[in-house]
Fold this sequence. Notes:
The structure is a homodimer of 332-residue chains.
Chain A: H1 2-8, H2 12-48, H3 50-54, E1 67-73, H4 77-87, E2 93-100, H5 109-114, E3 122-126, E4 146-150, E5 154-156, H6 158-170, E6 175-177, E7 180-185, E8 191-194, E9 211-212, E10 216-220, H7 222-228, H8 232-241, H9 245-257, E11 262-265, E12 270-272, H10 290-305, E13 315-319
Parallel strand pairs in A: 1-2, 1-4, 2-3, 6-11, 11-13
Antiparallel strand pairs in A: 4-10, 5-12, 6-10, 7-8, 7-9
Helix pairs in contact in A: 8-10
Amino acid sequence: MMRCYHICKLPGRVMGIRLLRFSSIIILVLLLVAGALTTLLPNIKDDKMPTSRREAKPQSQSALDSFTLIMQTYNRTDLLLRLLNHYQAVPHLHKVIVVWNNIGEKVPEDLWNALGPHPVPVIFKIQTVNRMRNRLQTFPELETKAVLMVDDDMLISAHDLVFAFSVWQQFPDQIVGFVPRKHVPTASGVYSYGGFELQIPGFGNGDQYSMVLIGASFFNRKYLEHFQRQPATVHALIDETQNCDDIAMNFMVSKHIGKTSGVFVKPVEMGNLEKETSSGYSGMWHRADHFLQRSYCINKLVKIYDSMPLKYSNIMISQFGFPYYANHKSKM
Amino acid sequence: MMRCYHICKLPGRVMGIRLLRFSSIIILVLLLVAGALTTLLPNIKDDKMPTSRREAKPQSQSALDSFTLIMQTYNRTDLLLRLLNHYQAVPHLHKVIVVWNNIGEKVPEDLWNALGPHPVPVIFKIQTVNRMRNRLQTFPELETKAVLMVDDDMLISAHDLVFAFSVWQQFPDQIVGFVPRKHVPTASGVYSYGGFELQIPGFGNGDQYSMVLIGASFFNRKYLEHFQRQPATVHALIDETQNCDDIAMNFMVSKHIGKTSGVFVKPVEMGNLEKETSSGYSGMWHRADHFLQRSYCINKLVKIYDSMPLKYSNIMISQFGFPYYANHKSKM
């Protein structure tokens, strides 16, 4: 009785202040709870859209589920930038490493940053000498198991890349790519380099390939390390010709795994943009001796290896049900 | 001096006989040498014709380089005999095992022998009960690692078979074949069976398959043994439906290897001859409940396995450069 009377007799101001404080605390607590609830809302939305869960979340891509694009470039910066706008958006891409063979020329980093933000980091690796094999270095920025190597004039559709990456994951010790070539033995024992226009004597039905060119392919990053450990004669051959790094890689992989070096994935939408450069620079393959060099390289590598390690394959992989959903039916 | 005079004075006849003997011996020796040389000749010819070396020599086919055709037959003996005339000539075929489900009916062995000789042995296995799973027994006559299993109304070209066999040799633990199918999950959790006309929710580009039907496929003989060891409930399900032995095999293989059970090879020339039988008997798939049974079997097998072991794949394999030598090019 006395306590109640005592309380009731407190000055009104003090009572008011305590009530105010109490109310403030309640309101604050309610606001905090509301704030916590709003952070929960987007998650519930994601559950309703299963496709978004399947989309690549770059920040959580592991080294096994993503790949690094390594693109070497020389005198075709217009094509490079156009291609970067395309490749930067390909699913499962972790990072881009541009191997800058324009010696003494500034990398377009300021331009790149000014036109950000970008989906993935792009690293420009400035080179000191313009070497074809610069792109086969073991870049410390390379974090993924898979490398996607693309020439700076090749536009490969994201559909093709996503599928080929899934194929590489099933054949991780081989070069999985879009451009098949072969070596051809001749009666004299001298080898020659070519594509489907050449025939291998006595091989029965159809064609074979024994190399998959690395300039449009996925391969395991360890092969960059292996390549660095190749004999100096191999490196010298590539430097002498400014060519054949891909032939050398196929020799190396085939020797290493004891079977065909590559797996050919038939591209649905892949094209060469070299005619669209304003630099006037045509690709290396326009040099008069380019193809003769490649046959020359095969025979030199056979000497270095003291054997012909390349093996033939006639496996051609396509994507079931894409682009046309009944593409598995005969006569299609 | 005396010796020489003695010899010179020998009667002419004796000299003649000795000369005759000597000449005969020389001639005989020359003939033997010539005979030995002629046996050498075919070998040299083989060296000049590399294709003949690559041809299968049936008498020297090892268990790894050849396969056994297992063909089960019921009420379509006309088709069977026509197909045997085709399959008996396929390269790398070791033997044919015909699983005779025509209970009580005489096998056409006399006819077969009367129309010999034949390239390979054909064994008729007389069955006591007409069971779909009769073809999945472990036949003692089976000597090769690879089994080619074909339905008694399927005509698959030798080109397709030779290629698919070479593919199986690269994927020996999978069912390598020409007919892809899939299971489809639905919102209720109940599975359904189908082909490319069905879609798998939320799967992105293209189609997937999770089964390769065994009635037009290569697989490892060990899977016959595995199948015999399957739970009685699996055998009972197949007997109950007279169906689903192939679905059961895919469940079994997928569970065993922990990845997709089959590899789909796109056939170039494969056709069904069921309309051409004079027996009036249409295949099992014409039964009203055939397809519903297959969905039923999938759900039953999931119960038996207490899981869904089937895995999806979108790998479609074709032969590089066959039938058209530039078939790897885009838009073909």
